[in-house]
Amino acid sequence: MLTQLRDAVSADAQAIAVLLEQLGYPTDASQVVDRLRRLRAWPEARVVVACRKEVVVGMMQLQRVPGLAEPDYLEVRSLVVEQRARGEGVGAMLLAEARRAVSEAGQLRIRCNVIRTDAHRFYQREGLRVLKSQTLFGWGAR
Questions:
Q1: Would you identify the CATH topology of the domain 4-125?
Q2: Beta strands in the chain (DSSP E)
Q3: Which of these, 41, 82, 47, 51, lies nearest to 62 by C-alpha position?
Q4: Cβ(5)–Cβ(93) under 8 Å?
Q5: Where are the chain's structural domains?
Q6: To 10 degrees, what angle do helices 13-23 and 29-40 make?
């Protein structure tokens, strides 16, 4: 089945909210609309959706992270494929888009929760390697 990539638009908000819920980040369409609006205004960020017959089956947020202690890099902030479309090449297609974008930044990074072992295997099959393990500290909501 043909999958096409394009930049996300506000009309994708409900589908993106469903995907984020599957990733473990419950949100609603109105929050996604607000977040997409903010990200579109930031030239260092991009949200890409994968569509089949105009139905969103995957999404990825990319952004350039400027560095002081180390060079700038491109980070995949989120990548999720609809549960029923997993294993059909959608994630690989999104990751290929990230690879094309990384040519300018020089390095690609993806943070992935330790409990996402299927995602770890996927990234390793796609040629990524573990660079380091970290513990995330913070204040406030998640």
A1: Aminopeptidase (3.40.630)
A2: 4-7, 45-52, 55-65, 73-81, 108-110
A3: 47
A4: yes
A5: 4-125
A6: 100
Phi then psi dihedrals of residue 33, to 5 deg: -60, -45
**Block means of pLDDT (10 residues each) for the chain, length 142 residues?**
91 98 95 97 95 96 92 94 95 95 82 92 94 88 66
CA-CA distances (angstroms) from residue 59 to 12, 32, 66, 105, 134? 10, 12, 23, 21, 25
Partners of 81 in the β-ladder: 58
Q: Closest Cα to residue 42, out of 67, 61, 17, 15?
A: 61
Burial of 89 per CB tally in 10 Å (0-12, 13-18, 19+):
middle
Burial class (CB in 10 A: 0-12, 13-18, 19+), 37: exposed
Other Cβ atoms less than 10 A from the Cβ of 17: the count is: 19
